[in-house]
Amino acid sequence: KVVAVIMVGGPTTGTEFRSVSFNTPKPLFPLAGHPMVHHPISACKRIPNLVQVFLIGFYEEREFALYVSSISNELRVPVRYLKEDKPHGSAGALYYFRDLIMEDAPSHVFLLNCDVCCSFPLPDMLSTHRRYGGMGTLLVIKVSAESANSYGALVADPITNELLHYTEKPETFVSDLVNCGVYVFTPGIFGAIQDVSIQREDGANLRQVSCFEALQSATRTLPTDFVRLDQDILSPLAGKKQLYTYETMDFWEQIKSPGMHLKCSGLYLAQFRLTSPHLLTSGDGTKSATIVGDVYVHPSAKIHPTAKIGPDVSISANVRIAAGVRLLNCIIMDDVDIMENAVVMHAIVGWKSSLGKWSRAKGDFDAKLGITILGEAVTVEDEVVVTDSIVLSNKTLIVSVQDEIIL
Ligand code: GDD
């Protein structure tokens, strides 16, 4: 039996993304017409003998309740949300729920970061992991040398693929091979996490001998139950014949900034073309709009036949698109109204927003932000042009703006 755990994290404050107040946990933000977390969950469905998917995070339970029940029905695999009372770190969170995760006595546990976009080659990873015979196998990818330091950088044995060296977000260049945040472990991982907690506890007890030192270290040491998978587990276990790497040649991106949300929505649409083309809109038939490239349209959306849509567009439920509208590289969320001859490109349009006739919402790839974001229930009046700007929820724009954040 196999179980999968997806780390969904929790509410963060002050990030660029949160600031647009999309009133939804980041893992439920739509990419290619489906919540971000839907993509790793449906990849898990392809794992042989999968019995359960757990989402672990510190968002309120009610925020995930509806989604978890609908996805369980859709995939016919139980999906459960487990809420931490506080953040325990990526490995600590796994350990915190060890009894529930091990309830069905699985032989393997997949662990996936929710905020990565890739093809999730999970069945191949599992068979490779079995061949290696280690405690864990990490999905890795080669990235550009300039970007490598933003991730966990690692060195692997070119013949055996053993993880030899691991540094989380190194200050100087280590390697262009990086950790994708997708792992498969044997239950031995729980013992490894426990060891870190015990070492921490011992360290804390020792330090209490000297009062001064205890005070000093209090600011430096982490709580004993806070364990990071990368620094605390992968780094020390590298080179000990316990961890191995599986390199993907497919796409991989980390989804942190709003611009990456848009890019990853496009990557998932392109993947649908290969794996589930029925999810894409073909635009066949005389009464349908002109569709260019990869486009997802929710069945409840109403699109005028003279509109031109694509490539890389996803349109959610109950959206209305009027005559002559042009949409390109954008995410249009539920209940949005786009009126005659409006243009949306390189942009995210939040729930219940509306764009008036001949208006435009566009990002300019050469500009600083490169994307325009309209928050929830934003109204852009007729003929108003919004360029490279973030507009917070419930605003009405009556004049054009460029390179602005409208609070
Ligand atoms: N439930 C829970 N509890 N989830 C957490 C916690 C926690 O306390 N802390 C982090 N996470 C989740 C995040 O939401 C994210 O999905 C994942 O765990 C990893 O988050 P971080 O630990 O903040 O690391 P990161 O995203 O900066 O980098 C990690 O992922 C990269 C790949 O995307 C590292 O493992 C890098 O080495 C790796 O390249």
TrEMBL record:
Nucleotidyl transferase domain ranges (all copies): 4-201
Record-linked InterPro entries: GMPPB_C, Mannose-1P_guanyltransferase, NTP_transferase_dom, Nucleotide-diphossugar_trans
Gene Ontology MF terms in the entry: nucleotidyltransferase activity
Top-level taxon of the source organism: Eukaryota
Keywords assigned by UniProt, alphabetized: Transferase
Presence of the UniProt keyword Transferase in the record: yes
Name of a matching Pfam family: GMPPB_C
Domain Mannose-1-phosphate guanyltransferase C-terminal residues, every copy: 291-406
Family per similarity comment: Belongs to the transferase hexapeptide repeat family.
Identification of the protein by name: Mannose-1-phosphate guanyltransferase
Taxonomic source organism: Actinidia chinensis var. chinensis (Chinese soft-hair kiwi)
